[in-house]
Amino acid sequence: MAAAAVSEAWPELELAERERRRELLLTGPGLEERVRAAGGQLPPRLFTLPLLHYLEVSGCGSLRAPGPGLAQGLPQLHSLVLRRNALGPGLSPELGPLPALRVLDLSGNALEALPPGQGLGPAEPPGLPQLQSLNLSGNRLRELPADLARCAPRLQSLNLTGNCLDSFPAELFRPGALPLLSELAAADNCLRELSPDIAHLASLKTLDLSNNQLSEIPAELADCPKLKEINFRGNKLRDKRLEKMVSGCQTRSILEYLRVGGRGGGKGKGRAEGSEKEDGRKKRRERKQRREGGDGEEQDVGDAGRLLLRVLHVSENPAPLTVRVSPEVRDVRPYIVGAVVRGMDLQPGNALKRFLTSQTKLHEDLCEKRTAATLATHELRAVKGPLLYCARPPQDLKIVPLGRKEAKVKELVRQLQLEAEEQRKQKKRQSVSGLHRYLHLLDGNENYPCLVDADGDVISFPPITNSEKTKVKKTTSDLFLEVTSATSLQICKDVMDALILKMAEMNKYTLENKEEGSLSDTEADAVSGQLSDPRTNASAGKDGPSPLVVEQVRVVDLEGSLKLRGR
């Protein structure tokens, strides 16, 4: 009788066990009552599904603790998403060890502390040895566990935004503690001091400490070799010149100011000697060249990019495309970057097919099957700006998906779910293909992210699809590119850089090899009636092939304040 009662209360578990599922989402109106009946914990039967790779339980106000047995029962878990629940004040028992876990999202709970035995896992041996992304934002944490770096030594992204932290543990910044950490976000806390030892984060690329109580920025911050983006806005700095620079988010200027001995760091080791300044400039130029040229194996791609790319900055473009970002995306998919690329030649031979294949490869590799980021490309002529990046209830959204008829997003997702089930049954396998693979990335979201043009049409629905309205064709020469992510701004930038370099390589190959190719009648008509843009021309001129022109896209909030410029 007891087993039958459990099956009746948790039919999802019985289905997952029968079909040997690797992904499981628990959500819906009845979840809160069932969890309350289970004592505020997840049912023990859940931890008898050892094949699970992805588990999400979100938006359940009665879930106070995961419950015992998770670490022992789910050894292959790669992603654990427990956001917007009521976990806290600690985690009892602690989560780890989870040897395969790569993504852990505990955002939007009621966690106050994560002490040994009530935290993420043991430090010796590491409880989360493969963890790459940890999201603890939107909790009530007063301090971080001192052994966090030992528990998760391969951490790459750490989000602590919106807690009550007044300091970082010294162990976090000890030499070699977190050699892979590239993104650290701790905005909207109570931080009073930033240790000079932050310079030991050798891989740090993005640092957001906005809206804290910092009075100084250590000069040693300029010694972080890969740092590209910092945000200290909303702090009352003693150095008023530095505070003015911070308000303008001039990362390069801020780091140079600290590097040459500005008063931003008090006792920092500023380097004001002319020769040392020149050394710093030389190193930055070398790092920039390495970024543009790739890391060794992609050197040819970098050469193509340097030869056939010209960047048009916002200051050089009187009317840049603008993306306005609505605040509600913060809880759904907060990061977006954009760029306009002019002069792409997709008409000859298989150029368009190669372009689309390169996007698929980026989604599989750098975007980690769209779990880290999603890119979309659009026919620029069909894009009506300014654009709005927002989040809305699925029943309020309509889109004409690529290759499909117009549908409400809620109906589209339901149809894709049905197709996925049918695909599983027909092919008698656990996994699915196509768009169906990405449906779980929407699980637990009350609102879905979308990009809306000036006509009110949804042109992009990340991470699922974009619109037929802006579909890229053989005749397309000017494109709008967008990359979005739920986890990291830096991954958006990395994907955008990789895509633009790939486009430069492809365009160079196409122009040099002069592929033959025929167009359909419709496409030929479009070409004959196409007006060339005076800023670019993809065809070879008297002096050889013209470069691709990359235009920066302004990303602003609804009040028009600059959030960032696209690549």
Model description:
- By secondary structure, the chain is an alpha/beta fold.
- The chain has two domains: 12-114 and 122-260, Ribonuclease Inhibitor (Leucine-rich repeat, LRR (right-handed beta-alpha superhelix)), CATH 3.80.10; 311-511 and 547-556, Phenylalanyl-trna Synthetase, Chain B, domain 3 (Phenylalanyl-tRNA Synthetase, Chain B, domain 3, 3-Layer(bba) Sandwich), CATH 3.50.40.10.
- Helices cover 25% and strands 17% of the residues.
- The chain has helices spanning 2-9, 11-18, 31-37, 70-73, 148-151, 240-247, 251-259, 274-293, 299-307, 351-364, 409-427, 489-513, 521-528, and strands at residues 23-26, 54-57, 79-81, 103-105, 133-135, 157-159, 183-185, 206-208, 229-231, 309-312, 322-325, 335-342, 374-379, 387-392, 398-399, 407-408, 448-452, 458-461, 465-466, 478-485, 540-541, 544-545, 548-552, 554-557, 562-565.
- The strands form five sheets. It has a nine-stranded parallel beta sheet with strand order 1-2-3-4-5-6-7-8-9. The protein has a seven-stranded mixed beta sheet with strand order 19-18-17-14-11-24-25, with no helix packed on it. A five-stranded mixed beta sheet has the order 10-23-12-20-13.
- Strand 1 (23-26), helix 3 and strand 2 form a beta-alpha-beta unit.
- Helix 8 crosses helix 9 and helix 10 runs antiparallel to helix 12.
- It is globular.
- The relative contact order is 0.09.
Draw up the topology in text:
Layout: H1 2-9, H2 11-18, E1 23-26, H3 31-37, E2 54-57, H4 70-73, E3 79-81, E4 103-105, E5 133-135, H5 148-151, E6 157-159, E7 183-185, E8 206-208, E9 229-231, H6 240-247, H7 251-259, H8 274-293, H9 299-307, E10 309-312, E11 322-325, E12 335-342, H10 351-364, E13 374-379, E14 387-392, E15 398-399, E16 407-408, H11 409-427, E17 448-452, E18 458-461, E19 465-466, E20 478-485, H12 489-513, H13 521-528, E21 540-541, E22 544-545, E23 548-552, E24 554-557, E25 562-565
Parallel strand pairs: 1-2, 2-3, 3-4, 4-5, 5-6, 6-7, 7-8, 8-9, 10-23, 11-14, 11-24
Antiparallel strand pairs: 12-20, 12-23, 13-20, 14-17, 15-16, 17-18, 18-19, 21-22, 24-25
Coiled coil: 402-433
GO biological process, one term: phenylalanyl-tRNA aminoacylation
Keywords: Coiled coil, Leucine-rich repeat, Phosphoprotein, Repeat
